[in-house]
Design a protein that fits this description.
Elements lengths: L1 H44 L13 H4 L8 E3 L2 E9 L4 E6 L4 H4 L4 E4 L8 E3 L10
Antiparallel strand pairs: 1-2, 2-3, 4-5
Length: 131
């Protein structure tokens, strides 16, 4: 009889673990979907910079240590977009990083786009479609 009780307790604990895993998986799917929608909306709103006129040297060439221009959207500063054509992916990039921001969009970790050593980081995993 004691053995049956022990088995029932272990089965109950196993069921709780399975329920917890399913709940966590569901939350992760929901959070990924939310992040994907947020990123695509922000990428559509970010302006596309104008190319410099012919014969004009851009400021970032003259002073590569200058701050990158930012655009504020929903209280966050963005420096632009990163585009990966082979994945058909276009994502906005935030000015500074922390774990909260990385759940929204990729972030600048260190450096500037005007000099070597520019690093972008992110944790959001978006589904890749295509063939």
């Amino acid at each position: 009889m004691r053995r049956l009780r022990g088995a029932a307790v272990l089965i109950s604990i196993g069921c709780l673990f399975i329920l917890a895993a399913l709940s966590l998986g569901g939350y992760n799917l929901w959070d990924d979907h939310r992040a994907e929608q947020s990123v695509s909306e922000i990428a559509d709103v970010l302006p596309v910079p104008e190319p410099p006129a012919a014969g004009v040297t851009p400021d970032y060439i003259l002073n590569p240590y200058m701050e990158m221009p930012t655009e504020e959207i929903d209280g966050y500063l963005y420096i632009g977009k990163v585009t990966i054509p082979t994945l058909e992916l276009e994502l906005p990039v935030m000015n500074t990083w922390d774990y909260k921001r990385m759940k929204i969009a990729p972030c600048r970790y260190v450096g500037t786009a005007y000099l070597p050593g520019f690093v972008i980081c992110g944790t959001t995993i978006l589904p890749i479609s295509g063939g």
